[in-house]
Predict the structure.
Amino acid sequence: MKRLFDVCLVLIVGALLLVPAAVIGMTVLVTSPGPVLYWSDRVGRHNCLFKMPKFRSMRVDAPAVATHLLADPATYVTPIGSFLRKASLDELPQLWSILMGDMSFVGPRPALFNQEDLIALRTQQGVHELVPGLTGWAQVNGRDELPIPEKVKLDAEYLRRQSFLFDLRILWLTFVQVLRRDGVSH
């Protein structure tokens, strides 16, 4: 049922956001050199790697690490990158990953391929069995501001509590947080 919900919702949301996504893509293209999309190597279900698209918000020479690990992240942000991140608009291309089945709307956020500490803790807790999500329980409880052990604790709680109604609650809380721009790293 979750997969059917994901496919139906991605088709509806994708249709509604097609024109805004095209405008964002054109804006990325004209404001900084490089491709419109950044394809990030991410860890999916069963710790298998997949390519996750995002609108590019960083320069093409930015290191492939979590933003909080950069000495001065602002030096790598494109002219519209900060806005895209604050508004979570850089995440829109991930609808493709949901359609392809690599992601779901709700689940633990997919780890970067080099976040070994996060991957190991999630594997210990069984969280690696879940399809990663566009949003998740950890995201609505602190997002980028949470330390890794706390994220994994919340991901494990989601694993135990997962249900259709819980997913709807997380989607609603995500919508509210995106509107308020809570907990987003710049």
About this structure: The chain has a mean pLDDT of 92. The two ends are 35 Å apart (CA to CA).
